[in-house]
Amino acid sequence: MNTLQSTERFSDRVADYVRYRPTYPTAMIDWLRNAHGVTPDWRVADIGAGTGISSKMFLDAGHSVIAVEPNAAMRGAAMEWLGSDPKFCAVDGQAGATTLADDSIDLVSVAQAFHWFDPEKARQEFHRILRPGGLAAIYWNSRRLVGTPFLEGYEALLQTYGTDYTSVAERYADEPRMRAWFGEGWRGTASFDHRQLLDLDALRGRLMSSSYAPRAGDPRHEPMIEALHKLFDACAVGGRVSFDYDTRVFVGEVL
Question: How far apart are CA 178 and CA 194, in angstroms?
């Protein structure tokens, strides 16, 4: 997939993305503090920041954050949401060309977007913008595919109706590949449990925030939504289903 396709494929999903995509566990911030010495005065560059979900996590933890996002609709949503915070700004840039100054960043944050990047261009750019001793934290929510009837049914639904699901879903790197990417700068990894409790409307919105979910007008859309309703009715407890994730984070210097 070329860069234009990857940067624009969420443009028509922004409203659903803002409302229904998961946050990240605050335990990850505690781990960065306690295990890696990150403090609130560290300036964060959030690369591929999207609508600002990850940026807000660092703002709430006291950091100044520059969101780097090439998709104009997503960047606009982030500014609308977070732009009143004096510690936040957003710029039009990409992982390999952030527009940020040399040695100007203490912590590079990459949430969910790393699999869209050219890894070598990103490494060179992160090395350029990070100060000596600065760190990169690369992390994502990986949806659990098995473990409950809902999780397994949802995966089957995506396999059946997703437009290009098998080519883009769960393309996240494993630990050996991340160790290799960091090389001698590798510092460590951790995993955290995370979940969303979703009613039917929120579950529908979460599905439609995914770039591979067929939109209204596609012949697969209505059958997919019907199947989603049936799955929810079969699995909901107290009017909600548990959408479960493993949040993986990889940290190191970019040498």
Answer: 21
Tokens describing residue 170:
């769960």
Backbone angles phi and psi of 194, in degrees to 5: -150, 155
Place of tokens 């990240």: 24
Of 186, 54, 77, 172, give the one whose Cα is nearest residue 115. 172
In 28-52, which positions are buried (b, 16+ CB within 10 angstroms) versus exposed (e)? bbebbeeeeebeeebbbbbbbbbbb
| Residues 67, 248: Cα–Cα separation, whole Å | 21
**Cβ atoms within 10 Å of 147's Cβ, excluding its own:** 10
Q: Phi, psi at residue 33, to the nearest 5°?
A: -65, -55
C-alpha 143/C-alpha 141 separation (Å) is: 6
Strand, helix or coil at 253? coil
Per residue in 64-123, pLDDT (tens digit) is 999 999 999 999 999 999 999 999 999 999 999 999 999 999 999 999 889 889 999 999
**Which residue has tokens 């960043």?**
105
Rounded to the nearest 5°, which phi and psi values hold at 8? -105, -5
List, in sequence order, the alpha helices (H) in 61-196. Answer: 72-82, 119-129, 149-161, 165-168, 175-182
